[in-house]
Design goal:
Among the domains are: 56 residues, no CATH class; 41 residues; 108 residues, Band 7 domain (Tetrahydropterin Synthase, Chain A); 50 residues, no CATH class. The chain is flat, with a radius of gyration of 77 Å. Strands 6, 7, 8 and 9 form a 4-stranded antiparallel sheet that branches. The protein has 8 helices and 11 strands. The longest helix is centred in the C-terminal third of the chain and has 145 residues. With 431 residues, it is of the alpha+beta class.
Length: 431
């Protein structure tokens, strides 16, 4: 055995013969060579056999350790659902730990995990049904609905004292005891009619105080049903019928009395109504007469105001016409003066224009006379320029008589040739 507690390998040096030697045939003996040593025996070297054994032993140890760790860590991821908390109890030291909803690493070999519901729970049905005794000694069957939850703050301190099923084993007995202790204070009729909520509130308060000591919060208690014994129920129904008949009779008598009172009141109301109507009619006539008188006064005042208004309107109309006539006369006068002034201005302008025109014409004639005096041939030339587009004008001087004219005619005839058409000749002279 080696230091790890495992058997030695067949390849160890201490082994006198390896397993491989069993399959190797020994060589034939050789003749003795004297004092020399014999050759070594065939097979695996001693160092190689020792290395393989150590590796195999280490591998076996690792496999054993891995298997042990996997068995130890199997299922270590523990999940706590929403609405629950996990109470982890240590197996070694007995420690208690509260785990919130989620996934936590708690190996099962080291911790026990107990899920505890901390959300609201409802106590109803058979667990919430019990019998109570009333003030008259009647055993009534009460069915409740209680909403409760485990107090998370005090769960670690009270967890060891909580039963496995807190609802039916703890909440239901405490609530039933509270109801049984308080029910004898109330009568059956009051419980059936109006005291049911009061009984539930008082019993819930008492049970809440007792359950708080165990780490349970009682949030609300309601009575869903209240069942009485059959005999008592029949008697109560008969009594209720008699009471209803009596009440019905009383109601009928009250209705008759009210009808009589109503008839009397209607007669008095009719009489008072007639008196009031007569008084109202007389008062209405008086008011109408007063209204007519006031209306007549108002009409007279209005007529007077209309007459005064018409007089004022006539005066205003007359004044308006006078003002209009005066305005028209002044406007006509101003228009006449303006027209006369305009005509004078136009006459002055025309006279000035005529005077200036005359002066210009005179100056023009004066210049023309000077030009004519200086150039006697200007008049024929001007006349010839004006009619040059229709008549060919030949200007001849008047000093030479007919000689110059005849010479000009001859020269024109020569230049035109025998076939030249005759041209009109006009002699202009200055007169």
């Amino acid at each position: 055995m080696n230091s790890l507690g495992l058997s030695s390998s067949p390849f160890d040096e201490e082994s006198p013969r390896s397993s491989a030697d069993d399959f190797i045939e020994p060589p034939p003996p050789e003749p003795s060579r004297g004092p020399e040593a014999a050759p070594p025996r065939r097979g695996f070297p001693g160092g190689l056999r020792s290395g393989w054994g150590r590796r195999l032993g280490l591998l076996v140890v690792l496999l054993i350790l891995g298997f042990a760790v996997s068995r130890l860590l199997r299922g270590s991821a523990r999940t706590v659902d929403p609405g629950y908390v996990g109470v982890a109890v240590g197996r070694l030291n007995g420690s208690v730990e509260l785990l919130p909803p989620g996934t936590h690493f708690r190996p099962p070999s080291l911790y026990d995990l107990h899920p505890v519901r901390v959300s609201d729970q409802l106590l109803s049905g058979q667990e919430g049904a019990f019998t109570v005794s009333t003030k008259e000694g009647v055993a009534a069957r009460v069915a409740i609905q209680a909403r409760w939850a485990i107090d998370r703050a005090s769960l670690l301190r009270k967890w060891s004292a909580l039963p496995a099923r807190p609802g039916p084993e703890l909440v239901s007995p405490v609530v039933a005891a509270a109801f049984r202790a308080l029910a004898p204070r109330y009568e059956v009729a009051s419980l059936v009619s109006e005291k049911r909520e009061e009984l539930a509130a008082v019993a819930a308060k008492q049970a809440r105080e007792r359950l708080a000591e165990s780490g349970i919060v009682l949030k609300e208690v309601l009575i869903s049903d209240l069942t009485l014994p059959e005999d008592f129920e029949r008697g109560r129904e008969a009594m209720v019928d008699e009471i209803q008949k009596t009440e019905r009779m009383e109601v009928t008598l009250k209705l008759k009395a009210k009808e009589v009172e109503q008839t009397r009141l209607e007669a008095e109301a009719q009489r008072a109504r007639v008196v009031q109507q007569a008084e109202a009619a007389a008062q209405q006539r008086v008011i109408q007469a007063r209204g007519e008188s006031e209306a007549m006064k108002f009409i007279l005042e209005q007529k007077t105001k209309e007459i005064d208004q018409k007089k004022l309107e006539a005066q205003a109309e007359r004044e308006t016409r006078l003002q209009r006539a005066r305005s028209e006369a002044e406007a006509s006068k101003i228009a006449g003066e303006a027209e006369a002034e305009r005509r004078r201005t136009m006459a002055d302008a025309e006279a000035y224009a005529i005077r200036k025109t005359s002066e210009a014409q005179f100056e023009n004639l004066k210049r023309e006379a000077e030009l004519v005096s200086a150039n006697p041939l200007l008049i024929p030339k001007t006349f010839a320029d004006r009619i040059s587009d229709k008549v060919q004008v030949i200007l001849t001087p008047t000093l030479g008589g007919e000689t110059f004219t005849d010479e000009v005619v001859r020269r024109a005839a020569r230049q035109g040739g025998p076939e030249a058409p005759p041209t009109a000749t006009k002699t202009a002279s200055k007169r």
